[in-house]
Specification:
heterodimer; A: 555 residues; mainly alpha; Cytochrome C Oxidase, Chain A; 18 helices; 0% strand; B: 49 residues; 2 helices; rod-shaped
């Protein structure tokens, strides 16, 4: 009976509308960005060439920007906005207005950047490393996306603050707490990319200054770039910790453990950008070493998460009478797409996380740096773990927001979709990992490198990537079919927004977790500790700045 | 009937419902996977550099 009351708790329809607006942009980005991914793998197989003078690097930029930046940011903001609405009782009119303003600014920014990429004015890939120089409208568009996301995030923080004010001494709802941690981490992290864009790349692309300090811009980018991957991952963790237990009919293993792991992510995912710059000259190795240690601290909340999820599953299985070491595994609801789709994502995080630890280790980074292993790695983390969880969320959230039902047929198609994705990614990401270990470079169009023997070794793996990419594109078509069905055609009804409860309701999360002064203070202290001295060093001992380069053919 | 039951030699194993043995085994598996892949690439590094 209690379940029925919970099932009727709905996201306010006015909030639902804003969330859906985010999802329409996100899934449009998925359609176009996914197509670009298919084209890339076909080009790299060496069997096919792009028509009409379209450049490989232009296609690569569209793919990275649309999937890495647009799909993720819009989906995450839409999901978190709905999660905060659902667990706090809804946004105020002021917060909702703010949310819409943020959404429109992000959309305008996206269109500005996309236009410049399509006009071949910005084939600088999604990392837009200087000294590759794009049109200033591209950088301004990205600025709009970031500023819009701050405003969008501010709406969530406002609603959280209002809830805290109305419920003094109470720990906030877990999903809202998690959404706010992720938003705060995003705001702190994006300060870095905002700094490089506003103070370096915009004046330089506008012609106000002639040169750019490449190392400063890359350092500011990676100050942002690593927490960016956690900004993608934490919403998936929100689903794994606080939603999946409800879907399977179990309980959250520990509410406090979940909160602690999110706080650890806030603390340790920012002061670690140097592990992306291990091969870069100009940064003192001692500071690289320090940031590598901080990077390894992130292993702790990751393994806490793994433990907590296994424990949730085992407890549930045993409550259903499962026995033996792994009996609980069999009784999980494998026919429910809302569980199975994110579960495949969770499983993918085991090799994805293991790969990440290799990347962050100084010596081993020399084996894999700038090889397609890295591309394979983030196609496991982002493009499997995170994205499959996002798909899994959509399968109940979209019908919840549109007042429809996930039908049995769509549920089945969703499970098929996830397996198609898994198979495609095993081929593509697997081949990328192995090719990377053989030295195959990332960010490279098809080339035989002057008939080099080593390059010939890579080609079979590139063909395997094209096979995997084609299967994945089929997966994208299936997702889009399900999305359109759930948004417009599925039968009217009520789909639950599942929110799990902790195992022991008497256990109240310690209020220290909501002490923002403390956590923001430690976050700031760690960032200042890890960055201040090396950053001064980078600026003081800077080589002459670089002029801009445009390595691609314009239209 | 009661006597027959008393005579049965089969032990009834009652598993603790709160047991987390499977969780322990699973996290050990994850840890082992991480170590094996790490050591594998470390050997590649030693061979090449």
């Amino acid at each position: 009976m209690a379940n029925e009351t919970v099932a009727k708790v709905k996201v306010d329809p006015r909030d639902a509308k804003l969330s859906m607006a985010h999802f329409f942009v996100a899934f449009s980005a998925l359609a176009l960005g996914g197509l670009m991914g298919l084209l890339q793998t076909l080009v790299r197989s060496g069997k096919w060439e792009l028509p009409w003078g379209i450049d490989y690097y232009q296609v690569l930029t569209v793919h990275g920007v649309l999937l890495g930046l647009v799909l993720t940011t819009f989906f995450i903001m839409g999901f978190q906005y709905a999660a905060v609405s659902r667990t706090t009782g809804g946004h105020s009119n002021a917060a909702r207005r703010l949310g819409w303003i943020g959404f429109w600014i992000m959309l305008i920014g996206t269109l500005m950047a996309a236009t410049m990429i399509l006009l071949k004015e910005a084939s600088v890939l999604y990392t837009f490393y200087a000294p590759l120089k794009a049109h200033w409208i591209f950088y301004l568009g990205l600025t709009f996306v970031v500023v819009g996301s701050w405003i969008d995030g501010a709406a969530q923080i406002m609603t959280y603050a209002k809830w805290r004010k109305n419920n003094p001494g109470q720990p906030s709802p877990l999903l809202s707490f998690m959404a706010v941690i992720n938003t705060v981490m995003w705001i702190v992290a994006t300060l870095g990319v905002a700094a490089t864009v506003l103070f370096q790349l915009l004046p330089w692309s506008l012609g106000l200054v002639d040169t750019v300090d490449v190392l400063v811009s890359r350092t500011l980018f990676w100050y942002f770039g690593h927490p960016l991957v956690y900004f993608w991952l934490l919403p998936a963790y929100m689903c794994w910790y606080a939603i999946i237990p409800k879907i399977i009919g179990g309980k959250i293993f520990s509410d406090s453990l979940a909160r602690l792991s999110f706080i650890l992510f806030l603390l340790f995912s920012i002061p670690v950008g140097f592990h992306h710059q291990l091969t870069e000259p100009g940064i003192d190795p001692a500071w690289k070493f320090l940031q590598v240690i901080l990077t390894f601290m992130v292993v702790i909340p990751s393994l806490m998460t793994a433990f907590s999820l296994f424990a949730t599953f085992e407890r549930y299985g045993r409550s259903k009478g499962a026995t033996g070491l792994f009996g609980w595994f069999r009784v999980l609801p494998w026919n429910d797409a809302r569980f199975t789709v994110p579960f495949i994502g969770m499983a993918a995080f085991i090799p994805a996380g293991a790969g990440g630890i290799i990347n962050a280790s100084n010596q081993m980074d020399q084996v894999v740096h700038n090889t397609i292993w890295i591309t394979g790695h983030f196609h496991l983390t982002l493009a499997t773990s995170v994205v499959l969880t996002f798909f899994g969320i959509s399968y109940w959230l979209i019908p919840h927001l549109t007042g429809r039902k996930l039908t049995k047929a769509m549920n089945k198609l969703a499970i098929i979709q996830a397996w198609v994705w898994f198979i495609g990614m095993t081929f593509m990401s697997g081949a990328m990992h192995f090719e990377g270990l053989l030295g195959g470079p990332r960010r490279s169009a098809f080339s035989t490198y002057g008939g080099a023997k080593q390059a010939a070794e890579w080609i079979p793996y590139q063909v395997a990537q094209a096979v995997g990419g084609s299967i994945l594109f089929l997966g994208i078509i299936l997702v889009l079919i399900i999305f359109v069905n759930l948004a417009f055609f599925a039968p009217k009804g009520e789909e639950e927004f599942p929110v799990a409860e902790a195992e022991d309701n008497a256990e109240k999360a310690p209020m220290v977790f909501e002490n923002w002064k403390l956590w923001l203070g430690i976050t700031a202290a760690l960032i200042l500790f890890a960055y201040t001295i090396p950053f001064i060093d980078i600026i003081q001992n800077a080589p002459p700045g670089s002029k801009g380069f445009q390595t691609w053919n314009k239209w | 009937m009661a006597k027959a039951e008393l005579k049965t030699k089969q032990k009834t194993v009652i598993e603790d419902k709160s047991s987390l043995k499977g969780t322990l085994a699973s996290v050990f598996f994850v840890g082992a996977f991480i170590i094996v892949t790490w050591v594998g690439v470390y050997y590649l590094f030693l061979e090449r550099f």
